[in-house]
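Field: sequence (string)
Field: structure_tokens (string)

Example rows 1 and 2, in order.
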Amino acid sequence: MNEQQKKKTMNVAFLIYDQVEALDLNGPLDVFIKADAIAAGSYHCYTIGKTKDAVFMEANTMSVIPTYDLKTAPQPDMIVIPGANPDRVVEYLEDDDFQNTVIQWIKDQYYNGTIVFTVCTGSMHLSKTGILDHHEITTHSMMLDALEQHNTESAVKRGVRFIDQGQLITTAGITAGIDAALYLVGKHHGPELADTIAKIFEYQQQKFKY
């Protein structure tokens, strides 16, 4: 990445929806927030929902209010799609309203050049979009078979923490989202920044190849 790209603030939109998995969302979010705190102007992070109404996180333990809705959000450079309980994700796949609004918005952004970064079962949300076609992809170990069944044009990989396909990044389960976020910070701004964040987290990150 050249110096001009490094200086550009990246708009990172975090999708939230009913029953979203807390660590899928908050792990990567905190990585990018810490990166911006250390390297000011590197990332502008915000949440986005179908509407600005509060939604419940997994098991209804807390409600969160998105910063923006689909119509008012700043143009994202990257969208982070956290997962949810496998049964809930399958329900969303069959929810025409969710598919025709939230998922269609993501699809439109992707084909306009926006990076899509799915965490855990978040990759399953894209199974009807064509975004995953002809890519290597992954998800939580509990959903690898389902991901393969729903995405016959993709190569589903097992035993990996995350896969970087350029405009598409997919991860394995839950904490793998932290690994991928640290990797992306290192890819965008150098491994020293990623290492600093991992030390702040007291997190045992794997060594990445950029």
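Row 2 begins here:
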Amino acid sequence: MPDAINPSAVVVLVSIEQENRDKILSLFRPVEPSDPALIAVVTYEDPSTLQVVLECGALAVIERPIRPFGLLTNLTIARALWLERQNASKRIRKLERKLAGNNRILRAKNILMETQGLSEQDAYENIRRQAMAKRVPMDDLASAIINAHELLTFKDMRD
């Protein structure tokens, strides 16, 4: 067993053997989106072997002795699942950024509602208008409002 996986590897085949369980799990856990597609090679199926296969994040399983029939199918399936995992990870990161931006806009809206006595719709329109006038994203303007409010609030607390 190697100490590390080559970062340029796209697909890795790993022989699942109980005596190497800890080494296998340390190499392949936790599964990161950038990790290569992992194919487990097993001698026989038993609960402990299947547990290691699941824990290391294998996307396909090949039986030993390896026969040509089914090998290409398993490689194709593992690669397709890996690509789906990559795409899902990208979508999740994008949605997390969008959610964080929406939370900042919501917080800035609440600050404007509290400090200027605006309604929720008016506070949102205020942020939108200012962002358009300054040609900056609403998220950036919301961050500026939050930072300014924190600075002014901190100064007020010291006085």
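free_text_note (row 2): The domain at 93-158 is CATH 1.10.10.10 (Arc Repressor Mutant, subunit A).
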